[in-house]
Design a protein that fits this description.
The chain has helices at residues 5-15, 23-26, 55-58, 67-77, 91-103, 117-134, 155-160, 198-211, 237-248, 269-272, 300-305, 326-345, 348-363, 399-409, 431-448; strands spanning 34-38, 41-44, 49-52, 108-114, 142-146, 178-180, 184-188, 191-196, 215-220, 224-225, 231-232, 251-255, 279-282, 294-299, 369-375, 378-383, 412-413, 415-417, 420-423. The chain has 449 residues and is an alpha/beta fold. It starts with a helix and ends with a helix.
């Protein structure tokens, strides 16, 4: 029997603790219960339709309810939904491991599965730490990460992150990373209005000098720091980091949890930047936003150091219950196959350019817009009080949230970050859907402010 909306609202408020949500504030707004989806759109239980402009928290690639993805899932469900990979294997997991090795650069041939982005990162960190112990360089224990980094919410990833208010409270329980300065790059539609990485690279060089042989690894979100509010790096920056890490014999961990699988217009940023890291972390778009599956891809040279007799205890003692889940694996394989077709067709670059043009056209001269940044299918519109670009709206005004809530009335699902509106649609968004997005966002913004 279908429950009434009011009844579900009551149950939701009584029992559901929502992530990254102030629950007292949540109770003040009309609740939205998503019922079903198709393409870039989702419908709520009352039949209202919304464009999914945050791709269900940056995961959706081919749209919702995709018939090809549905089919492989149904076929797999009719065989088996889950089987452990601890000591045994299954075809979907094997095929996906081969595919991920194929799309990863150079000797990144070993795939260690998990089930979310934070775990994919923690696994890379643990592999790096264990590697240095196994090769006898036991002083290499420290981690370098970039200012404003976000790699997840588990203790290891909070430690290496620099997300201020999100994680500060837990700093007593985290191992600290050494942060280097982030570069600056403001870009819309590949048009760079300001860019500099000199100070960033100098600050990294100083860390390398000071800590010489104590560094195990450097971790970076390549090209775009999503959770920091779509902060970009200049083209070629990742290559410079790779060269510095190689010179200092420091592992490079590239966290493509957000950027992978089309988000910035390529399968992976490491392709675009021609970089071969030691570890690659994948999640979110890996399963096109369908299921929780993540992967840490490591170089052969790293894997080889973990081999030996059991009694030497070189084994990597780590494994999550749903590691390498077959349903996640089949949907990831199908999604990658569909993405390869999309890249071959070459339409994505046109859509990306269209998104950049439309955002500039509609918001560039808006008196409440301080800055627009866009790269691939990631964009941020940073807001300010009318005509005063150097001022912020007070936090308690909740301007971003109010705009996002109001945008629902205009058919848009958005997730803001403080006073910025983040735009992260499914990769298959069409030009007419982009028109709908920018026009309705403008209406929501104007009617809120
Ligand atoms: N790394 C990056 C770059 C991310 O953006 C995120 C999540 N937004 C994570 C790691 C953590 O992923 P998850 O939420 O799946 O743990």
């Amino acid at each position: 029997m279908k429950q009434s909306k009011e009844h579900l609202d009551q149950l939701d408020l009584a029992h559901f603790w929502h992530p990254f949500t102030q629950m007292s504030e949540y109770a003040d707004y009309d609740q939205l219960h998503v019922d079903h989806g198709l393409g870039c759109w989702v419908w709520d239980t009352e039949g209202n339709k919304y464009l999914d402009a945050n791709a269900s928290i940056w995961t959706n690639v081919h749209g919702h309810n995709d018939p090809d993805l549905n089919k492989v899932l149904i076929d797999q469900i009719n065989k088996i939904s889950h089987s452990t990979t601890l000591g045994i294997s299954h075809e979907p997991g094997i095929r996906l491991a081969k595919k991920l090795a194929d799309i990863s650069p150079g000797s990144l041939n070993r795939v260690f599965y998990s089930d979310n982005g934070s775990n994919a990162v923690e696994i890379a960190l643990k592999l790096s730490f264990q590697y240095w112990q196994l090769v006898g360089e036991t002083k290499r224990t420290k981690v370098i990460s970039m200012e404003n980094a976000y790699h997840g919410d588990t203790f290891g990833t909070m430690g290496i992150g620099d997300s201020g208010v999100f994680h500060e409270r837990f700093s007593n329980w985290c191992f600290p990373a050494i942060h280097f300065q982030s570069p600056k790059c403001v870009e819309v539609n590949e048009h760079v209005s300001s860019s500099s990485d000199i100070e960033s690279l100098e600050s990294l060089e100083k860390i390398f000098i000071k800590h010489a042989d104590e560094i195990a690894c450097l971790i970076i979100e390549p090209s775009v720091q999503g959770a920091a509010g779509m902060k970009f790096q200049p083209k070629g920056f990742l290559k410079k980091i790779e060269l510095m890490c190689a010179e200092k014999r420091v592992h490079l961990i590239v966290d493509e949890v957000f950027t992978g699988f089309g988000r910035v217009g390529e399968m992976l940023v490491v392709h675009k930047e021609e970089v071969e890291p030691d570890f690659l972390c994948l999640a979110k778009g890996l399963t096109a936003g369908y299921l929780p599956l993540a992967a840490t891809v490591a170089k052969d040279e790293i894997f080889d150091q973990f081999l030996g007799r059991f009694s030497e205890f070189k084994t990597f003692f780590h494994g999550h219950t749903f590691t390498g889940n077959p349903l996640g694996s089949v949907v990831a394989l199908k999604s990658i196959e569909k993405l390869e077709l999309l890249f071959n067709e070459g339409h994505l670059s046109e859509t990306i350019a269209y998104l950049g043009n439309r955002l500039s056209e509609v918001f560039e001269d808006h008196p409440n817009v301080r800055e627009i940044r866009q790269r691939g299918f990631c964009a941020s519109i940073d807001l300010c009080p009318e005509g005063v670009a150097d001022q912020e709206f007070p936090i308690e005004d909740r301007v971003g949230l109010k705009i996002a809530i109001n945008a629902r009335k205009h058919g848009l699902l958005l997730r803001p970050l403080a006073n910025s509106i983040l735009i992260v649609p499914p990769i298959v968004i069409s030009k007419s859907e982009i028109d709908f997005l920018v026009e309705n966002l403008k209406i929501a913004l104007n009617s809120t402010l």
